[in-house]
Design goal:
Elements: H1 3-11, H2 27-37, H3 41-47, E1 54-56, E2 59-60, E3 75-80, E4 85-91, H4 100-106, E5 115-116, H5 120-123, E6 132-137, H6 139-147, H7 149-158, H8 160-184, E7 191-194, H9 208-228, E8 232-236, H10 245-251, E9 255-257, H11 268-275, E10 280-285, H12 290-293, H13 296-308, E11 316-320, H14 330-343
Parallel strand pairs: 1-6, 6-7, 7-8, 8-9, 9-10, 10-11
Antiparallel strand pairs: 2-5, 3-4
Helix pairs in contact: 2-14, 6-7, 6-8, 8-9, 13-14
């Protein structure tokens, strides 16, 4: 099977020739892996039998951006934590406002017309055998960058009007951008990323009622659009999210990533037992202990255990729990994919 056929078989509850495998990593982790394998990226993906999708998006053609700012006016700074470099927000353009009226008077939202999609047919040429991911939303992440992390939590209680106004703008834009992708390359996209990081290490970061009030209605619009165009909803959601999983399933998510099974309530057997008929599980190889600090044999054992639990009867795509980090030895990454390939055949 081709990678696209392999993914589609899993998504359609059919039996692929083997379990598909995906690759998520920081740039530092990838550099270490390529040095270890002594090859370029494409050759590494071939040698490790990885079935990763390609990602497509609109091309920004809007007004010139201020130096150091993104399309929303958010400014970031690269911070080196010793194990990786991450862009952290240093300027939140809506943080200083205390009403919707102030925002409307002083801030200009990007327009869906600021992106062009004419290049997409050419962008996917030569990739017909791979899954294609495009469109979707992760609006609360953008909201936190616009308002500031702490202020965003406060807004849930003290400024619901500001939150509803901003989230409506963000969801409307995500909807239009996703629709234009589907219209430009009809039938080509099979994965659409509808995400929110709702979970912390031990439980939800927001109350279920706040999630239902502020986030699920907008997510449902994107999810319904996705389903109408034949794509499957790929839902990324870190941490311990079991308490909200039934709501997310009712909203229409199809693929659950990254399955951080060490978090309370996210145990693999329980997830498979209670939600395995409704969800495809993606990820599942622990990125907090096993991959960075485990032995090669422990990585191999975890892959096999994931196949036994998350992969029982199908419905599983192998990958790390979020991005490989630079602290993970390349030997462990290679062991993960070699074991996945050896043991994944049906």
């Amino acid at each position: 099977m081709t990678p696209r056929e392999r993914w589609l078989a899993v998504l359609n509850r059919e039996t692929p020739d083997r379990v598909p495998m995906d690759y998520w990593a920081t740039s530092e982790a990838t550099e270490k892996l390529l040095k270890h394998l002594n090859c370029d990226f494409d050759e590494a993906m071939r040698r490790l039998h990885i079935d990763s999708p390609i990602y497509i998006a609109g091309r920004y053609i809007g007004p010139p951006l201020e130096e150091g700012a993104d399309v929303f006016g958010v400014k970031t700074k690269a911070v080196d934590y010793g194990t990786g470099v991450y862009n952290e927000t240093v300027y939140c353009p809506l943080e200083k406002y205390s009403s919707v009226e102030e925002i409307e008077a002083n801030y200009s939202w990007p327009s869906p017309d600021d992106w062009d999609y004419s290049h997409l047919p050419d962008a996917i040429k030569g990739h017909e055998n791979r899954p294609i991911r495009g469109g979707g939303c992760e609006v609360f992440l953008i909201y936190k960058q616009l308002r500031g992390e702490a202020q965003s939590f406060i807004d849930l209680v003290e400024n619901p009007g500001i939150m509803r106004y901003c989230l409506s703008k963000l969801f409307d834009m995500a909807y239009q951008k996703t629709l234009r992708i589907f219209e430009k390359i009809p039938g080509k996209v099979i994965l659409t990323y509808a995400a929110e990081d709702l979970g912390g290490q031990t439980g939800l970061m927001y109350s279920p009622n706040h999630i239902r009030e502020f986030l699920l209605p907008g997510m449902k619009r994107i999810i319904e659009l996705t389903k109408q165009h034949g794509s499957y909803v790929f839902h990324h959601d870190d941490g311990a999210i079991r308490d909200i999983l039934p709501d997310l399933i009712d909203a229409g998510i199809k693929i659950l990533n990254p399955v951080q099974w060490r978090c309370p309530g996210m145990e693999r057997e329980g997830l498979k037992r209670d939600f395995g008929d409704k969800l495809i599980f993606h990820g599942g190889v622990d990125n907090q202990q096993t991959l960075p600090f485990g032995t090669v044999e422990e990585v191999r054992e975890e892959v096999i255990e994931n196949y036994r639990t998350l992969g029982a009867g199908g419905g599983y795509i192998l990958g790390p729990c979020h991005n490989f980090q630079s602290v993970s030895p390349p030997e462990n990454i290679v062991a993960m994919y070699e074991t996945g390939y050896e043991c994944g055949w049906r």
